[in-house]
Design brief:
- The protein is mainly alpha-helical and 272 residues long.
- It has one domain.
- The chain is 70% helix and 4% strand.
- α6 packs parallel to α9.
- It is globular.
- The relative contact order is 0.14.
Length: 272
């Protein structure tokens, strides 16, 4: 019965979040010019993720929101560590692609006119990072770990997280695997640190740095990439129009990152 109750909560909130998003975005078409709809949709969708997560927690759970990992006295440090980590992961993926025979850099472009799009995309990705992490790692994962333990709880949450991206353009089976792996890595970061701010930082710079090179999860956030290149290999190797998240290089990097995180946790546990 407790399993059914937990899944009922999660599926109910998941459905409510997406239905509310669709309804409000439909209304926004009346108020916002079409060119501003991307920004409006991001703010509405992730604002609803946060609102619904905290509302559900306070209505149905017995403890305070500190259980979601949001209230952390060291949140600035955790956020900084996460931001550095997300940046380095994308740089490693890019460097692996660069030394491969399938990517040739054609131009490095940055002019003052790109400053606003860079800052705008950073703000958008911060909204995405907070909204998706509060909803998935804060609400869903916390409930699932309590119900099924860390292993299954993080794994099931990662599948929910990957499902957020099913409707994205150019979604492939490699994209699905990589987003599940990203969910596992973010989930481990949340579980081992006890803080939501570590995965929020990772999520922010993972997306933001990626936007300097490619589309992010199949979506274009910048008017043009800062580093332009020609891809000559199959999309399952290069990522194609989905971006780095559609590449097997990302599969390798995320698998290695998960392995290192688990080894670090094991070492810390053994020495304590």
């Amino acid at each position: 019965m407790s399993w059914l109750k937990t899944f009922g909560k999660i599926l109910g909130m998941y459905t409510l979040a997406w239905v509310s998003t669709l309804l409000l975005v439909s209304l926004l078409f009346v108020w916002f010019p079409s060119q501003n709809m991307t920004a409006a949709t991001i703010v509405v969708q992730n604002g609803l993720f946060v609102l619904i997560s905290f509302l559900a927690w306070h209505l149905w759970e017995s403890d305070s929101s500190i259980g979601m990992g949001w209230q952390d006295p060291q949140w600035k440090t955790q956020f900084l560590y996460g931001s550095v980590c997300g940046f380095l992961l994308i740089i490693v993926i890019f460097l692996l692609q660069w030394i491969s025979p399938w990517l040739d850099i054609t131009q490095v472009y940055f002019k003052p006119t790109l400053l606003y799009p860079v800052l705008f995309s950073g703000a958008a990705f911060l909204c995405v990072a907070i909204g998706e992490e509060v909803f998935s790692r804060g609400y869903i994962q916390t409930l699932m770990v309590r119900q099924a333990g860390p292993g299954w709880g993080i794994a099931i949450t990662s599948l929910f997280f990957a499902s957020f991206h099913f409707g994205n353009p150019h979604f492939t089976w490699v994209s699905f695997i990589n987003i599940v792996l990203a969910g596992l890595f973010l989930g481990l970061a949340r579980h081992l640190s006890g803080s939501l701010w570590l995965p929020i930082g990772i999520h922010l710079t993972w997306n933001w740095t990626q936007s300097f090179f490619t589309p992010v999860s199949g979506m274009q956030f910048m008017p043009r990439e800062i580093v332009s290149f020609h891809l000559s290999g199959p999309s399952w190797i290069t990522g194609g129009n989905f971006g780095f998240e559609g590449s097997v290089f990302t599969t390798l990097v995320l698998s290695g990152a998960i392995f290192l995180l688990l080894r670090l946790a094991s070492h810390v546990k053994a020495s304590s």
